[in-house]
Amino acid sequence: MSGLAKPAEIFDRDFEWADLTSFAVDPAPNPTLGVVWGRRRQGKTFLLGALCDAAGGFYLEATEATAAESLRQFGAAFGAHTGAPGAIDFPDWTAAIDGIFALDTASPLPVVIDEYTYLARVAPELPSVIQAALDARRRRGGSPIRLLLCGSALTFMGRLLAGSAPLRGRAGLEMVVSPLDYRLAAEFWNIADPRLAMLTHAVVGGTPAYRREYARDDVPRSLRDFGPWVQRTVLSPASPLFREARYLLAEEPDLRDQALYHSVLAAVADGNATRGGIASYVGRKATEVSHPLTVLEDVGLLAKEADVLRAARPAYRITEPLITFYQAVMRPAWRDLERRQAAAVWQRSQARFLSAVAGPHFEALCRTWAADFAGPVTLGDVAAEVGHGRVNDPERRTSHELDVVVLAPSDGRARRVLSLGEAKWGETMGLSHLERLARVRDLLAHRGYETKSTRLACYSGAGFTPDLVRASSRDDVLLVDLDRLYTGS
Fold it and tell me: Which residues contact 95 (CB under 8 A, 6 or more apart)?
């Protein structure tokens, strides 16, 4: 089975496929365990199904069912895989897992239990059963079974191998399947225009299923078609994308107070990125929003991003673009959208879309570019930390917000600032933006940062004035337009 070829229908996922196949064909003689997790609709099932097809493995997709029915479903699938005349009647999960590890195979054999969370909910003993079976087989020898547990409930799957969990220390693979990054998403959606690619990504992000299954390969054909595309897909009650943002919350078992979590996400989508701002928006004390913020982080819907210049001032960002779009554009107009007034809603939501969706999303992509694509030649060194920042200016009685701050690795001396950046989606940037960045650089120098080689970066979706373009001939000025964001370094 060495060198399992990745099926042509799987887009990208080269690293994931390599890790999965390396685990699946590992020649070790005893059984091993792997865990694969990530948000729904990222292609986990597609990957694991293709792996089993390529290697002749056993694949089981669990369903929401009682413990007894789940065990019967497992027995039926096991019987079909082994060629038995009918379903195998396992009395309990101990016997079922023993059956997996007792499969007679001389070569490594992948066994996938997809939607493992469904089984573990109705059979909470399952992790301990798997642990005991693994330990026993490793002691006395067993077939080279490669058991892969896959799930989408992030809080549960994230704890599966943590702390004192039964399977802690038993896994030889832990793989998270994430959304496609913004460059790969543009390629996947077959969008060559970077402006159109950015706008599309601001709505649907990098989730593969949103194009193939949900939008049925309906891709915006041009900038002129973007608005109509939004209306006929995300804003259409007949489209699965219409209710998807709501389902993303409903699918997480730890999000019990749906109203509170929706309000917290609405607060962040409205520009309230700090704990205090979120608490004020939802009408709670700051201490009362700590738990919902933590839970939303655990399920992967919120990310806490540090102010790299003031560690005590983190900001929260919604990780799923579709949720930001829903909270900013759809939720306030839900009744009108249900009455199929998408055109009217979209028309009156333009300013809101640009300020609450496109603008913040562009800033996030600029930080991603600096972290993942800019490279040491552009920045002057390897980027160790990339984030936002805020710098007080006592002399002018103001403060300066920075969209992209890049710090060099810490070497025990004054921390080097590689780049200070400002990002404007709909504004042509000029010398005034450069002058403000230079002012911040001076302020940081006075505070002990090393800024002699700091690049001043202007990121714009609308372009730059001629005088700023001329200034970019300086070694310390960096201009990043959409073309560079999508194709340059």
Answer: none
Contact, 183 vs 37, CB < 8 A? no
Provide the token pair at 476. Answer: 């310390």
Rounded to the nearest angstrom, the gap between the alpha carbon of residue 387 and the centroid of all alpha carbons in its chain is 17
Runs of H (alpha helix) within 214-314: 223-232, 244-250, 258-269, 275-282, 290-298
pLDDT at 311 over 90: no
HSE of 400, CA atoms in CB hemisphere, 13 A: 24
- Give backbone dihedrals phi and psi of 263, rounded to 5 degrees, phi first: -65, -40
Taking the C-alpha atoms of residue 451 and residue 415, their distance in angstroms, rounded to an integer, is 9
Q: In what order do the strands lie in the sheet with 58-61?
A: 58-61, 109-114, 145-151, 32-37, 171-176
Handedness of CA 64, 70, 73, 78 (dihedral sign): positive
Contacts 24+ apart (CB under 8 A), 10-13: 10/43, 10/46, 10/47, 10/50, 11/180, 11/184, 11/188, 11/208, 12/180, 12/184, 12/187, 12/188, 13/43, 13/47, 13/177
pLDDT digits (tens, 9 = 90+) for 159-197: 999 999 999 999 999 999 999 999 999 999 999 999 999
Question: Token pair of 186, please?
Answer: 């543009």
Provide φ and ψ at 277, rounded to 5°.
-65, -40
What pTM was computed for the model? 0.94
Taking each helix axis from N to C end, the angle separating 290-298 and 275-282, rounded to the nearest 10 degrees, works out to 110
CB atoms within 10 A of CB 100: 21
What's 107's DSSP letter? Answer: S
Helix (H) / strand (E) element for 188: namely helix 182-188
Residue 452 has a pLDDT of: 96
- According to DSSP, the β-strands at 145-151 and 109-114 are parallel
Give me the pLDDT at residue 431, please.
98
Predicted confidence band at 138 (pLDDT cuts at 50, 70, 90)? confident
The predicted structure's pLDDT at residue 1: 45
pLDDT in tens, 360-418: 999 999 999 999 999 999 999 999 999 999 999 999 999 999 999 999 999 888 999 99
